[in-house]
Amino acid sequence: xxxxxxxxxxxxGLENGLIDDADKVYVTNGLLELFQxxxxxxxxxxxxxxxxxxxxxxxx
Length: 60
Fold this sequence. Notes:
Layout: H1 2-15, H2 24-34, H3 52-59
Helix pairs in contact: 1-2, 1-3
């Protein structure tokens, strides 16, 4: 579940110009460190884009 949310947040950042494609791995690693995760499996497919507030609420 957390992997899906991290991927969704990174995708939101990319789509809205908040991060560059070159920073995707760096940002993902930073989020994994924040949530104290050692493993990460990037989801194959993301669903329909959601609003930022909904993604952040789920992460909390």
